[in-house]
# Entry
Amino acid sequence: MNSGTQMQFLRYLLMGQSPATLLDSMDAADIAQIYDFIWEKALEIGIRVKGEHFSQADMLKRLKTAEQYKLETGCKEPLQRCIANECILLNADCVRKKYDDQLDRLYRLIADYLGIEYRM
Amino acid sequence: MNEYQAHRILVYDKASTDVDRLVQLLTDSAFAVTLIGNAEEAFQFCLIDHPDLVIFDIKNEGKESEEFFRQVKNQYSTHRIPVMLTTLETDYKKRVEFLEMKVDDFVAKPYYPEEVAARVISLFQEFKPTTLVAKPVDRGFWGSLREMNLIDLIQTMELGKKSGIIHLNRGDKEGQIYVNKGKIVNAVVEAYDSVERAYLHMLTWIEGTFHVVFQEIEVTTPLKEDNESFFREGAKVIDQWRRVIGELPSLHMCLAAVSTEDAPVLSYSERAMLSQFQKPKNILQAIDVSDFDDFDGLQVIKSLLEKGLLIKTDARQSDDGSLPSTFRPVLDRRHRDAKSAYSHIFSIFQRNKKQDKHSGFQLSMNDIDDEKMAAKSRIANNIQLTKAELLLIRQKLGR
Amino acid sequence: MSILSVQKDTHRIGEIIVAGPSLPLQKRFITHLCNEVVITSNSTVFGRSKITDELQLFFYGIGEKDLYMDFAWDLVAPKMLGYVLVYNWFEGKDFTSVQQLLNILSNLVDSHGIVVGDIAGIPMTIDRSVYESGFSLSSKLYLSLWDSTDKTNAKNVLKILIDSLINHLE
# Structure
């Protein structure tokens, strides 16, 4: 993941803008990577905004668990495969869809933290 | 009025009847004109004050004028000053000779004032500093030692691992520092037999000019000392030198020995130095012709001045080290010199595009399409400051 | 003892490159940090900031895009403290330009750097405490915001870069 792309996602995060357009041209593996990056930044922002009152559990509550996602998609694979993104080669679209959704949730959460309007 | 108003023109003309008319014409055109009638003084003026244009008349004393012109064109720090020749000479062959001497423009007398003004402006356009900077073949830079001292220059070359010769000119003396891939390999100045002594001597040239010419340097005997050693000692010498000259009158001030009947007891060094001032000399000249190192020489002169054994004389140089009062006041060029020097520093770091194609360092998105390839050629970076120094910076920036 | 063996070390210099699509922004950034600034005829800015008698920071603003593409990074990069890329935060075209430069630099130079988006007096709804210590893009690269209308703000940017260097040495 190059720094320019990371910066683009971070810029959208701070501007309260949905990353959907940025994701269009990316493959599932890249999206998974950028999700990790944005998760870290979300934690940083959460801590800076909330200070002592920050709770990672609160953040996680706003996201969808792998279990929920599996249920929604009707996937029969073991849960661990979904958590570890093992399907990234066999079923990239599914992984991609999972992260598209998670990123959207994360961006909305940060917009809330920052007190800015979220734009699609 | 024109865009070159306040540009400074030196008119070197000793005896022309029409020189006053020329000066008046140029002054009316809003140029700052300095008229000097002596070749040596005219050359000194070029060295120290760098006029934007020199106009000289070849008729007066022929050889002296020709010699002045050659000096200006052969000197690194002055050779870029455009020179215009005015002459009454009508002989065709003689005129061709002048042109072959590479004067930058030529005006035959009698001239129309408007023609001279137009030609002066045309020369300024031709010699615009930006034009010179942009020349791709010109990889050198020049400026004033007041703005960039020798250590700054060498550090700049070290940063870019550049090879070339730093030509220094103190006005009355020239020297060269040879740098190979950023490392000092030789230092040459008249009467100094070792690299270290020559280098240390040139460090004391806190006034004067420099011109750096980039070229390959052949290294015959590598020096044991590295640049860091040179810098360490250099910084110390500059510091000491500045401290001592701060306690002295101008280095350009002429001094002469005073003969007193009840002279105090003098050391051998003091007697030796005093003998240098039997004829009036300025401080730099006296140190140069003596056997003393610069710093020791300065200390001895200071002691002689304190004992009242040296006094100021009515000399060609004025007390403040500036040129004689016959020179008209001119604009302060320091700022412009600084700009020019920095501008040229940047030119070092501007790559020749042609060269890049071969070196593979041309920056373009195409080159980094393959990240693995790019990572292979990633340039390593070493933080040059210590942690303590970084903490000092951090402290200065505040919490 | 050789006169060259004196151990006193003086005149230490840290060099920082300032680049980006807008020369006026580079100039403003350098001016806010330096006591001495020279703007040259070929669109470059040089600034000097004295930290102590022995220690100085030099800032080189390298002008327009055409200039920085020709800049000899391979000559300067090995010894510089780091680079600062400044651009207008709200200007999409500038962002694309700085993004490209960042991609090139981060792949070419293993150096510390910071990308700074200028919010130029436009009040951000985001609290300053959120962005003033920057966001790390990697262990050596940061993103931060900067208000170029506030003279003291450039110091914050430099703090992030210096902190990054200090952390690296720890």
The helical segments of chain A are 3-15, 20-23, 28-50, 56-62, 66-73, 79-83, 92-114. The radius of gyration of chain A is 14 Å.
